[in-house]
Design goal:
By secondary structure, the protein is of the alpha/beta class. The protein has one domain: Rossmann fold. 24% of the residues lie in helices and 25% in strands. The protein contains four helices and seven strands. Strands 1-7-6-2-5-4-3 form a seven-stranded mixed sheet. Helix 1 packs across helix 2. The longest helix is centred in the first third of the chain and has 12 residues. The protein is globular. 41% of the residues are buried.
Length: 143
């Protein structure tokens, strides 16, 4: 299903709403270029899972962990990885087994490591407004 976000706060709200639809062990695979709002969406996802602290992109650390009152969130950034083999080297299977939610930026770089039932979130610029985003969510019902 496609959604239009008119602001960063709107993108965060979509992430918060998605959190309510996710079960333990869910994988959220992001698609979208630099500056599209993947980290903003993840901030909302973290809020929806009960985490109230600061949420940042794990570009240099590869993964950030957030634990709040709900499921833990493991936020991955695959931009610096060569392929799925690198993902397994950092303990991907261990994260999947921990029963939290794995949010994966640049998921196309590790496509073969993602489960078939991963939720896909694609974020792109709206063709008429530079600051709006089209957010397509697949793999769950309406959020």
């Amino acid at each position: 299903m496609d959604y239009i976000s008119h602001s960063e706060a709107g993108t965060e709200e979509l992430g918060r709403r998605l959190a309510a639809a996710l079960a333990p062990g869910a994988v959220v695979a992001y698609r979208g270029g630099l500056g599209m709002g993947k980290t903003a969406f993840t901030r909302g996802l973290a809020r929806g899972l009960g985490y109230e602290g600061r949420v940042t992109s794990p570009t240099f650390t590869i993964v950030n962990e957030y634990e709040g009152t709900g499921l833990p969130l493991f936020h991955f950034d695959m931009y610096r990885l060569e392929d799925a083999a690198d993902l397994f080297d950092i303990g991907w299977e261990d994260y999947l087994d921990r029963g939290g939610v794995c949010a994966v930026e640049w998921s196309e770089r590790v496509e073969e490591a993602l489960p078939e039932n991963a939720v896909t979130v694609s974020i792109a610029r709206h063709p008429e407004r530079e600051d709006w985003r089209i957010v397509a969510v697949e793999g769950v019902g309406p959020i």
